Amino acid sequence: MNNIQEILAYNKTFVETKEYEKYTAGKFPTKKMVIITCMDTRLVEMLPKAMNLKNGDVKIIKNAGAIISQPFGSVMRSVLVAIYELGADEVLVVGHTECGMASLHAETMIGHMVERGVSEEVMSTLENSGIRLQKWLRGFDSVEEGVKHTVDVIKKHPLLPPNVPVHGMVIDSYTGELDLVAEGYGQQTSL
């Protein structure tokens, strides 16, 4: 049985036994918060448990490194949708210890792409089109600095309401301990 077959078989039982009932929630976050965090597998259950969050409490956006690299990209758009359309009124960026983005090297990743079949011609075409893979695939040196960078990108966004606090934390990937690295209360202005 492959992964998809396994997922569908489990899902059939999940629905038939009404397991979904314990996860029933509305689409609006009850804690009125949107969280940007890393897609790291260790955080799937650890992050909500360490923060005492249950289904429906917050909107969670996951990507590599909890980084907003493009102020007008899909992650920032999701933050704005959460604020303007779904009732969030606080933003929290949560990075984590031992993040893979801290050790990401563009050269290595580009090498892996070529090894897996992406042609040199494609690489060259992208570079000639102005896409700088070395910059785009770059990680960060410090998780704390990565979190602070993303907090700063959000706080300075021209479409963010001035009264929305933006916070930053780092979670320990093993213990779940949270370290506040950017506290947003008092930094927002009233409308």
How would you describe what is shown here?
The chain has 191 residues and is an alpha/beta fold. It folds into 2 domains: 22-100 and 141-191, 3-Layer(aba) Sandwich (Beta-carbonic Anhydrase, Chain A), CATH 3.40.1050.10; 105-138, no CATH class. The chain has 7 helices and 5 strands. The chain has helices spanning 3-16, 43-50, 74-84, 106-115, 120-128, 133-136, 143-155; strands spanning 33-38, 58-63, 90-96, 166-171, 178-182. It has a 5-stranded mixed β-sheet. The protein is globular. The protein starts with a helix and ends in a 9-residue tail after the last strand.
CATH topology of the largest domain: Beta-carbonic Anhydrase, Chain A
Radius of gyration: 19 Å
Order of helices and strands: HEHEHEHHHHEE
Q: pLDDT below 50 for ≥5 consecutive residues: which ranges?
A: none
Please tell me the total number of domains. 2
Spatial sequence of strands, sheet with the most strands:
2-1-3-4-5
Please identify the structural class as seen in this structure: alpha/beta
CATH superfamily of the largest domain: Carbonic anhydrase
Taking the sheet with the most strands, its summary is:
5 strands, mixed
**Can you give the mean pLDDT?**
94
At CATH's second level, what is the architecture of the largest domain? 3-Layer(aba) Sandwich
CATH C-level category of the largest domain: Alpha Beta
General form: globular
Please report which band the strand proportion falls in: under 5%, 5-15%, 15-25%, 25-35%, 35-45% or over 45%: 15-25%
The end-to-end span amounts to 56 Å
How many beta-strand runs?
Answer: 5
Q: How many DSSP helices?
A: 7
**What's the helical proportion of residues?**
25-40%
